[in-house]
Amino acid sequence: MKVLSVVGARPQFVKEFALTRALRDDHEEVLLHTGQHYDAELSAVFFDELGIPEPDYQLGVGSDTHGRQTAECIVGIEEAIESESPDCVLVYGDTNSTLGAAIAASKSSPDLVHVESGLRSYDREMPEEVNRVLTDHVADVLLAPSDRAAETLREEGIPDERVHVVGDVQYDAILAAREHARNASTVLDDMGLSPGEFVLATVHRPRNTDDPDRLTAILDALASADREVVLPVHPRTEQRLRDDGRWKEYAERLRLVDPVGYLDFVRLLDAAARVATDSGGVQKEAFFLDTFCLTLREETEWVETVECGWNALVGADPDRIATGLTAPEPDGSKPSLYGDGTAATRIVDVLEDRSTPEQADPNP
Length: 364
Ligand code: UD1
Ligand code: UDP
Description:
By secondary structure, the protein is an alpha/beta fold. It folds into two domains: 184 residues, Rossmann fold (3-Layer(aba) Sandwich), CATH 3.40.50.2000; 141 residues, Rossmann fold. It is built from 17 helices and 13 strands. The chain has a seven-stranded parallel beta sheet with strand order 3-2-1-4-5-6-7, with helices on both faces. The chain has a six-stranded parallel beta sheet with strand order 10-9-8-11-12-13, sandwiched between helices. Helix 1 links the parallel strand 1 and strand 2. The radius of gyration is 20 Å and the shape is globular. The model has no long low-confidence stretch (mean pLDDT 96). The structure holds uridine-diphosphate-N-acetylglucosamine and uridine-5'-diphosphate (UDP). The site of uridine-diphosphate-N-acetylglucosamine has 18 residues, from helix 1, helix 5 and helix 11. Uridine-diphosphate-N-acetylglucosamine binds next to helix 1, helix 5 and helix 11. This is UDP-N-acetylglucosamine 2-epimerase. It comes from Halosimplex carlsbadense 2-9-1.
């Protein structure tokens, strides 16, 4: 089986890390990097540190409007499909790179395989929600991280035989990286941080970064925390703060640092007293690492983490953020929500079954 895997943005490199070894054991993988993320700290660091194979294709689409960025992905991925003739095109999550690949693959012969299928925030103003819905509805193989995600797909009319519950590849990645991060990462020492004594934060959703009132409300609330707040700043967020002339002020009130590599991030998340984030992936990773999460959004596609008490939706509300920063952690056992850490091998099994369908018994 020949698989063309498409990545382009930070969370997709982590997901690719989880899957690539299982895939390459017995199959050919061609890796395409769209170039949606290109700064070393958002891209190269993941390939270097996690041993992700060098991409076979680099489209270099860079930053642009949604239309131009997605269009360049479509053109480049279509060309790669034509030259490689893969059996399937595998896409992760919900970025513009995902959508570009979905459109290119769905208009050509290989199967489109969507990892992290069936997630919904039900907020169509989020570009990611549009990307997910469109990708799911043209995919041939929909790989859901949970029963709930699979149920959502069924409710949307997607035939059962296309949907497979495999668990979450980011859980596989965390299991592979947690111990290694504890042993190898020096980030706590380097930053002078003690476990349990700081809050980790990330903010990058346009709804938060592009609305100055929301961004200010969030950062002011974090700056009022009774412990140090470490915030690895996404370039989108840094740009907005610099444009508004607020960077210097917040750099004095918060620990603003460059984005960190995955192992350092996992170590920080593992050791933090709390995490406050609008990231999708970080909400799940916090759950896997037993760190209570405040989600700086009004809704989430990872609803199970909220229902079991390990995630609180606090939006940009200063009072809810303040309460969440000091609330006790939930007690009692944690449910297993997103599989058992073997999503990668399950995905390969699904693809193998599909590429070698059972022969009909000639002598029934
Ligand atoms: C994208 C995804 C989002 C995902 C996030 C992961 C879409 C619509 N959004 O958001 O779902 O959660 O990646 O981090 O696909 N920039 C740089 N250097 C880079 C990349 C970007 O400086 O290497 C800056 C540019 O100014 C760019 C801005 O960040 O305009 C936003 O980048 P973009 O990839 O468009 O969206 P993200 O906010 O990163
Ligand atoms: N991450 C990282 N360094 C950082 C911030 C995040 O390695 O400074 C990792 C994090 O562990 C997770 C992924 O990047 O695996 C999440 O990416 P992001 O929040 O950008 O995107 P989302 O998940 O919201 O799409």
